[in-house]
């Protein structure tokens, strides 16, 4: 059986971390944060806390990824620590809603920014029953399929696209930051009247933290392609830690620029805060430049999500817990081609349905339970599998993993309290995967079973 090829080097791994984390959140999230906490110092405190939690998760995952560098990321950690049921539930959640919904959301955000230049994208093209299909939705569907094909023809090609667009993205965001920091007429932020939130300080802080964690989400994706990373014992910890740290620095600098140019009330009044800042500095040209930067940022995040997300159903299929065809590796391209097409196809359907955001709300609660379990597996595996080679050990163990778990618990309790219906629906959505698990696990038990994934020796020609 053909195996995946280790063709991604350290720069591709870093580009996956940075490129999949920084999407549209940096351009939109500050409005929600100032609306919830009211003052600039509290906004920065939220970014610091969210960054600390994300870095704690990255430091913990670095041990897991270097120790278990197989395709699927959390699927591998959960399976090794708790058994195949938990690995399957993670893959079910990712394929059905979490990763596919994220891809649909990114593609839709891309067409919404594109509509700044092509207004017809916002027009309805045709109706399918009660569903109205916009020109932009069809454009988003085509974009997903094109990126799916790019990653189908080779992980090296997909990784090259990721490096190129992530580099361009960071350069454009850096230019926006410099424009704000060098602006000659900054707002009197220190003396400006704070925005007055409509919620309590605690509730507002938690809501703002949820928004920050959403903006930081994606640092874990590089572990999904661990079986295609060259020298994973070294490169995965570097990518996770350095990439997450770099994103934190970019977010803090961007917010410094925003609040240097705009007063808190102005940030609270504008959904696209980066565009409003550039509008203030350079007029319509500046706002248009932000749309281009946002499009490139989203494009890199979308490519990275397809590149990494397809490895989760592939890993489950290799264990007999998904459609058999999803376990196949293209004989020439050495990619999980069928798995890529499945994920891209389902994400495209969600784009046309227009219901992905509602489903995504449902799965946040359940997904964070699985993230917390994956983080806690570092404790489980140190006791259960002390024999495993650990080329990297979590810095600050056990306090760093505990910090992440405490943050996850606060997030879960808050979500359950504020959105009980969505939280319980999310659990139900995950549990819907149980019949499929029992079917596929029973079928796998009856068959002779396929070989376990074998690490492929390092090959020349890496990115």
| Beta strands, count | 2
How much of the polypeptide forms β-strand, as a percent range?
under 5%
In round numbers, the mean pLDDT is: 89
Total helices: the number is 18
Structural class given helices, strands, pairing? mainly alpha
The biggest beta sheet is recorded as:
2 strands, antiparallel
Unreliable residue stretches: 449-462
- Distance between termini? 24 Å
Major sheet strand order: 1-2
C-alpha Rg (nearest Å)? 22 Å
Tell me, what's the shape?
Answer: globular
Please tell me about this protein's structure.
The chain has helices at 10-21, 25-37, 40-67, 74-82, 84-114, 135-152, 155-181, 201-216, 232-261, 264-269, 273-282, 284-309, 311-318, 337-353, 356-384, 399-418, 420-431, 434-446; strands at 124-128, 131-134. The protein is mainly alpha-helical and 463 residues long. Strands 1-2 form a two-stranded antiparallel sheet. It is globular and about 70 Å long.
């Amino acid at each position: 059986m053909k195996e995946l090829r280790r063709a991604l080097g350290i720069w591709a791994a870093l580009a996956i971390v940075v490129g999949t984390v920084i999407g549209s959140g940096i351009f939109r999230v500050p409005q929600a944060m100032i609306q919830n906490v009211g003052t600039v110092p509290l906004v920065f405190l939220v970014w610091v806390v969210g960054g600390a939690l994300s870095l704690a998760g990255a430091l913990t995952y670095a041990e897991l990824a270097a120790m278990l560098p197989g395709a699927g990321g959390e699927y591998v950690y959960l399976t090794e620590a708790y058994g195949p049921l938990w690995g399957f539930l993670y893959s079910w959640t990712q394929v059905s809603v979490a990763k596919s919904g994220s891809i649909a959301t990114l593609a839709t955000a891309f067409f919404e920014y594109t509509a700044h230049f092509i207004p017809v994208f916002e027009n309805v093209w045709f109706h399918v029953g009660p569903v109205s299909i916009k020109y932009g939705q069809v454009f988003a569907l085509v974009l997903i399929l094109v990126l799916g094909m790019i990653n189908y023809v080779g992980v090296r090609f997909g990784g090259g696209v990721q490096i190129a667009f992530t580099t361009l993205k960071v350069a454009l965001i850096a230019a926006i930051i410099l424009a704000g920091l060098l602006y000659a007429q900054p707002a009197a932020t220190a003396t400006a009247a704070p925005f007055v939130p409509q919620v309590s300080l605690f509730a507002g802080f938690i809501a703002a933290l949820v928004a920050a964690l959403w903006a930081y989400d994606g640092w874990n994706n590089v572990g999904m392609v661990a079986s295609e990373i060259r020298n994973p014992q070294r490169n995965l910890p570097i990518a996770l830690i350095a990439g997450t740290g770099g994103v934190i620095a970019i977010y803090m600098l961007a917010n410094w620029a925003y609040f240097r140019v705009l007063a808190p009330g102005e940030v609270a009044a504008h959904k696209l805060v980066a565009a409003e800042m550039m509008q203030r500095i350079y007029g319509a040209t500046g706002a248009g430049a932000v749309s281009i930067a946002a499009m490139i940022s989203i494009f890199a995040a979308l490519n990275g999500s397809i590149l990494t997300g397809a490895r989760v159903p592939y890993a489950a299929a290799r264990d007999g817990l998904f459609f058999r065809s999803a376990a196949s590796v293209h004989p020439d391209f050495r990619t999980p081609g069928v798995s890529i097409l499945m994920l891209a196809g389902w994400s495209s359907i969600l784009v046309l349905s227009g219901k992905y955001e509602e489903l995504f709300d449902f799965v946040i609660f359940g997904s964070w339970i699985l993230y917390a379990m994956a983080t806690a597996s570092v404790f489980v595996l140190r006791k259960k599998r002390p024999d495993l080679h650990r080329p990297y050990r979590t810095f600050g163990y056990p306090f760093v993993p505990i910090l992440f778990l405490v943050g996850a618990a606060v997030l879960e309790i808050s979500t359950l309290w504020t959105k009980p219906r969505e939280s319980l629906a999310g659990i139900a959505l995950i549990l819907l995967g149980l019949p499929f698990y029992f079917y596929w696990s029973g079928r796998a038990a009856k068959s002779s079973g396929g070989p376990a994934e074998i690490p492929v020796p390092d090959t020349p020609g890496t990115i």
